Amino acid sequence: MSRFLDPRFAALKEYTPGEQPQDKQYIKLNTNESPYPPSDKVVQAVNAQQVRDLRLYCDPDCTKLKTAMAQRFGVGENNLFLSNGSDDILNFCFMAYGGGGAAFADITYGFYEVFAKLHGVQAEIIPLREDFSLDVEGFKGKNKLVVIANPNAPTGLCLDLTVIEDIVRSNPNGVVVVDEAYVDFGGESCYRLIDRYENLVVCQTFSKSRSLAGGRLGFAFACPALIADLEKIKYSTNPYNINRLTQVAGLAVVEDDGYYMDNCRRIEENRAFAVERLEGLGFEVLPSKANFIFCRSDRMGGKQLYLQLKEKGILVRHFDKARISDFVRITIGTREQMGALVDAVRQLLGE
Are 236 and 118 in contact (CB under 8 A)? Predict the structure, then answer.
C-alpha cells in the first residue's frame, strides 16, 4: 500500500472472496452461486436495445423493478430498498446505525467485521455455542446495531421466526439487521415483521436463489423511516448504483418467479442427496437451510480435503479460523455435480 493511505484503513483486514481460478475447468462448489442459469425471460430482457441505451443513466429509483417487487412480496414501495448487492445494504446499515456499537457472531459472514472496522464501529463479537447455534440470549437487550445471518454462513443453521422476533423485540433502541441471503432454500423470512417493529431491516439478494450473482442486486425490507435512512446514504454517495441491465434482468426475474422457486426446491433435493451420501461416508454435516452444507470428516482435515478435491477439479471452501478449520463448506450444485463430489470424496477416503 502507498504512504498516502489514511491510517484508519491501513489495518483493515479485507474480506476474502471465494477463489475464481482460471487455470482449468472446475466444478465450482465454493462460492454459493446457483448451478442453474437465469430463465429465458432474463436472456430476452437483456437485449440489444438495452445495451444501446447504456449511453443513458439508469433510473436511480428503479421504479419498474420496485413496483414489481412490492407486488410480489405484498409490501409498500416505501418498505423496499434496492441496492448494488446486499453487501451494499449491510455497509449502509453499519454506517447509519453503528454509532453506538454493533453485535454479531464470531462465526458468520466475514463482511460484518470488515464493515465494523471500516466505519470505526465498536464490535461486540458473540461466540456461537459449541454446536454452532446462535447464543440467542447473548443478542438480547443490546440496544445497538445487531446483525444476524439467518440462515447463518458458513454453518447453514437457521433460527425460527419466533426467536428472531424475540431478539428484535428485546432491542427496541437498536436496529436489528437480519441477513437472509439464503432464506429461499428452506428458511422462513421475517420480512412481514416490519409492520410491527420500527427497528428491523431484512436483507435479501438476487445472487443465490435468483441466479443473478453477477448482476449485483440486493434488496431490503423495513419501515418507511428506515428505508428513508438508507435512501439518504445511497443518494449521498452513488445514486445510480444499480445499472440499466441489472434493473431489466431483475424485473424479468421477478416476473418469472416460479422458475427460480422451482430451482430452490431442486437445490434442496440435491442438498438432501449430498447429506445422505456424505453422512454415509462418516461425515458430520450440520443441518442446513442454505444452498450449501458445512461438514467435516474425522479421517481427513478440512484443508487437506479442500486441497485434494481441488486437485481433482472440484472447488469447495475452507476457512482457517481455529474453531472451523476441520470443516469445509460445499455449495449445492446439480445432482450430477453432487454425485461427482461424492465419488471424489469416496476415492480420497479409499472407499
Answer: no
Confidence tier at 351 by pLDDT (50, 70, 90)? low
Torsion, Cα 136 137 141 144, to 10 degrees, reads: -40
What gap in Å lies between CA 68 and CA 82, rounded to an integer?
12
What is the longest distance spanned by two Cα atoms in the chain?
59
Average pLDDT over residues 215-226: 98
Residue type present at position 24: K
Q: Is the pLDDT of residue 21 over 80?
A: no
Place of cell 458468520: 108
* Residue of 7, 22, 32 lying closest to 333 (CA atoms): 32
74 DSSP β-pair partners = none
| Virtual torsion, Cα 90, 191, 259, 72, nearest 10 deg | -110
Contact 174, 280 (CB under 8 A): no
**Residue 311: strand, helix, or coil:** helix
| 46: confidence class by pLDDT, cuts 50, 70, 90 | very high
CA distances to 6, 17, 189 from 1, in Å: 10, 20, 42
CA distance 250 to 204: 13
Measure the CA–CA gap between 245 and 50, rounded to whole angstroms: 7
If you average pLDDT over residues 84-96, what whole number do you get? Answer: 97
CB atoms within 10 A of CB 217: 26
Q: Does pLDDT of 287 surpass 90?
A: yes
The pTM (predicted TM-score) of the whole model is: 0.95
Q: Is the pLDDT of residue 20 over 90?
A: no
* 3-state SS, residue 132: coil
Q: Is the pLDDT of residue 10 over 90?
A: no
Q: What is the DSSP string of 239-273?
A: TT-S-HHHHHHHHHHHHTHHHHHHHHHHHHHHHHH
pLDDT of residue 207: 98
Single-letter amino acid, residue 325:
S
The residues that bridge with 218 in the sheet, in sequence order, are 83, 205
- Single-letter amino acid, residue 328: V
Query: Which residue type occupies 79?
Result: N
